[in-house]
Amino acid sequence: MNASQFQEFLTYANKRLAGRSDSEKVAAFMAWCRDRGIEEVIARLSAEDKKWWKQSLFLDFTTTRIIVSKKSYARKFLDTGFVAGMAPFPYIVLSKDLKTSNIRKQSLLRPEEMLKSNSANYYMLYSEISNFFLRKGVETTITNMLGTAIKSNFVTIRTINNKVFSFRLPVSKNGPFEKIHYWLSVVLPIRISTG
User: Fold this and answer.
1) 3-state secondary structure (DSSP) of residue 166
2) Helix extents (H) in the chain
3) Is the pLDDT of residue 140 over 90?
């Protein structure tokens, strides 16, 4: 999506979204994008592969799929992510100040550009996902240098082809479980199981 398309959405939504809840605003934005054939990144989570080498990843939730991308070495340590996990355009939809002038061009990654980059590992269409399981947890066996438990939530995704993908979601980079569950429930067109 470019700035002029987003401006078109803002004109469309100007009176229609007044008084709506945040989840209704984001859902309306997603529906508008889908109706026009626009794939847009809605939310991003920082993740780690649950294997021993702990590859640092981004899970980008678009209007049609989840894109899994490897973080660069520098990004692994300096990752600021999106504000409140929301991509720039949905964040503006939720803000009181509906202006595109504050968005930096480098933060506007289009899904097709993400998939062409060297960092994109793979993607899963929502229609290919048979189970999305989100679990709250604390890994007490792993500690940092100060001996404090590293807090994480966990996602396991099973596809219709029985492939299983498991991710650790560090709380320090993504926020509390309840917030993640709430926004994923808005963004994903599939049922989320929790435990």
Assistant:
1) strand
2) 3-16, 22-35, 73-78, 88-94, 111-116, 171-174, 177-187
3) no
Q: What letter does residue 86 receive in the DSSP assignment? A: B
Please say whether the beta carbons of 126 and 64 come within 8 A: yes
182 closest CA partner among 16, 27, 38: 27
Angle, CA 153 vertex, CA 40 and CA 146 arms, to 5°: 125
CA 187, CA 56: separation in Å to the nearest integer?
22
Domain region containing 102: 3-194
Q: Where residue 63 sits, what CATH number does that domain have?
A: 2.30.29.30
Q: Minimal CA–CA distance to 165: which of 195, 111, 128?
A: 128
0.70 exceeded by the pTM?
yes
Name the domain count of the chain: 1
Residue 42 CA to residue 163 CA, distance in Å, equals: 24
pLDDT at site 147 = 53
> What is the overall mean pLDDT for the chain?
80
Give the tens place of pLDDT for each residue, 3-54. 788 888 888 888 888 889 999 999 999 999 999 999 999 998 988 876 655 6
Sheet holding 129-143, edge to edge: 120-125, 65-70, 56-62, 41-49, 164-170, 149-159, 129-143, 192-194
Closest CA to 79 of 52, 56, 109, 53: 56
User: Which contiguous run of DSSP H or E holds residue 117?
Assistant: none
